[in-house]
Structure formats: structure tokens, C-alpha cells
Amino acid sequence: MGDSRVLVSAGYMPLDVIDDGTATWRRAGGTAGNVAAMLAFLGWHTKPAGRLGDDVAGQALVSDLRGAGVDTSLLQVDAGAATNRLVHEIRRGEHRYRFTCPRCGQPLPRSRPLRLDQVEPIVAAVPNPDVYFFDRANPGTVLLAERYAARGTTVVFEPSTPANATLIQRAMRAATIVKGSHEHGPELVEHYESGQDGQLRIITQGAAGARFRLGTGRWHHVGVFAVDVVDAAGAGDWTTSGMLDSLIGKRSLAASDVGEAVMYGHALAALNCALPGARGLAESRDATTVAKLVRALQEGDEVEPLSAPPMVSSTVAHDLCDWCLLHVDHVVPDRLTASR
Q1: pLDDT digit string, tens, across residues 221-278
Q2: Strands, DSSP E only, in the chain?
Q3: What CA–CA distance (Å, rounded) separates 5 from 10?
Q4: Whether 28 contacts 41, CB under 8 Å
Q5: Distances (CA, A) of 172 to 22, 70, 120, 198, 297
Q6: What SS3 class is residue 4?
Q7: Which of 15, 19, 103, 228 has the most neighbouring CB atoms within 10 Å?
Q8: To which H or E segment does residue 267 belong?
Q9: What is the rounded distance in angstroms from the CA atom of residue 133 to the CA atom of residue 157?
């Protein structure tokens, strides 16, 4: 990728098991995984950092990221551990998350945080990325944010879960950009004490658009594109990715720059909402075609309805659940649509 921009991401990155009522398929997911894959699609050199188990699910997650053009060299495999998983059900425009597999009935392994002893090796391996992105405030991710902030990297924090107040405070102080959503509660992003001068804060509001402000300036509103929604999963991650792709590299930011960048992200998000899965757009169109579709949306031209290619899950060993890849003695038959 040569002189392409570089991203390091850390945080939530499970193996997603996605079912749309006709088929199931597995993809690397979570905000940290999605942003890495989406920016790779847009031409960046992306390196997610995290911990996986030495299991079939971990292998599937790594394989999917590599297939998306992501560099997986910062992912650490923990011996004897299970990889984080999450089931997604898509039904009539509604998206539901399950933390127990509907197929085999087992609770799904949860995420394990980045460890403190991983931080310095990551900085040594990638000393000056253009962007460090993280969505979970734990000791490892926050220390990495502080290390990169001291080196002049653009640090992007997207708080998505409650965390220790001290860690949140450190994360907010290290961040160049803080992005929140109405889903996770806008209070942290909107009312937290001001960060450094020029810090950009963004709150996405679903169909109502987004609001942003630079430093302690006034809030600005950005609209969205009206589309028929098949699945809204990944919309926020496409907004983040498009915004970063548009903003990073500018010497200084004006409100007009941010507004244009968020609208670019919203266009990508709108296109993806017409397809199932967080990365359906990247899996069904190449980057050149997507750029043309974005321009058409922005110019108010009619965009042909998008269709997704058939999703087919690979066969798995007989002692694994064909959904979540956990070991089972038997699979509960016909609880939901089986893989095909």
C-alpha cells in the first residue's frame, strides 16, 4: 500500500454470526473490526490490535479480515482461549443481537481487553499511524491512546459501553476526535468537560442526522440520505470511516470540512443500509463503483437499488455448531434458518 494512510484500531472485535432469515454467514465485526475493514476498502493500510482465541472462530475472524485487505499482524492469539462471538438476526429491517447461540443454545464467549503488556510492542511495530481508533476504554486501549497522542497521531475515541470514570477522563483528554451516538447515550460526548483546543465531537442521531462541534464552538447539524433500510447495522461505522477518509491529512479543520466529511460518511452508510450486514456494501461493490454511487447520492441523482450476492457459510467440523463454531454434543434442529 506504500504511501496510503495508516490506521491502528483496538476495542470490540467479535466474530459476527449473521442471519437474515435465508442464510447465515460469519464475518469479523465490532466497531474496531468494521472500521479497520471499511478503511482498508477505501485504500488505507489498517492494523487492528486485540486478542483472539486459538480456535476455529479465531481462524475465521483472521481469514475474513485478511480477505478484506486488513493487516492482522497485531492480533494476539491466546492459547486455550475462546474467541469473542456475537449473533446478529436481521428481520424486516430490524436488527437484533444475541449473546447466546440460537442454534446450539450455548452462551457466546465475551470480549477480552487489550493487555497493558501489548501496548509497547504495538507502538514499536507501528510508531506513527495516521489514526488510532478505539471504542472501549480499558487500561490497555487508553494507554495506547496516550502513547499515540504524544506522538501526534489523530486519536479517535468512540465510547460505546460504560467504563471506569478515570479511564474515560484519560481517554477524552487523549482524543482528537470523540464520536458518540444516540443509541449509547449522547451525554458523555455532549456534556463532558472540554478537551484540548480544536477537539472535534460528533453525535450521530440515526435518521435525524448528526451534530458536531469543534472545541467549545457551537453545534452544527448534518442531515442524512433517505433510503429504504434493509439493515442499519454498520451505519455508524461507515460514517466514522468516511469521515476519517475525508478529514485525515487536512492541515486544519473548519466546520465546512467536517460537515462535508460527515455527509460523505452518511452517503456510505445510506448505501450500506440497503444491504444486509455491516459490510455488505464492500462485499457487493468495488471501491470505484461505490465512489460513483456516493457522488450520485450527493448530487441528488437516482441510485439503482442495490442487491447483495448470496451469502454462503462454509461447512464446519461435525463436532462444531454450524452457526457459532463452539464445540457441541448435538445441535438443536430447526430453531432458526440453518446455514446454506
Answers
A1: 999 998 888 899 999 999 999 999 999 988 888 999 999 999 999 999 999 999 999 9
A2: 6-10, 15-19, 24-28, 45-53, 75-78, 85-91, 94-98, 131-134, 154-157, 177-181, 200-204, 210-214, 220-222
A3: 17
A4: no
A5: 42, 27, 21, 13, 34
A6: coil
A7: 15
A8: helix 255-272
A9: 6
Q: What letter would DSSP give residue 228?
A: -
102 C-beta neighbours (distance < 10 Å), count: 16
Reported confidence tier of residue 190, pLDDT bands at 50, 70, 90: low
Measure the CA–CA gap between 134 and 175, rounded to whole angstroms.
10
| pLDDT tens, residue by residue, 263-288 | 999 999 999 999 999 999 999 999 99
**187, three cell numbers:** 451525554
Selection from 241, 126, 118, 114 nearest residue 167 by Cα: 114
pLDDT tens per residue, range 125-158: 999 999 999 999 999 999 999 999 999 999 999 9
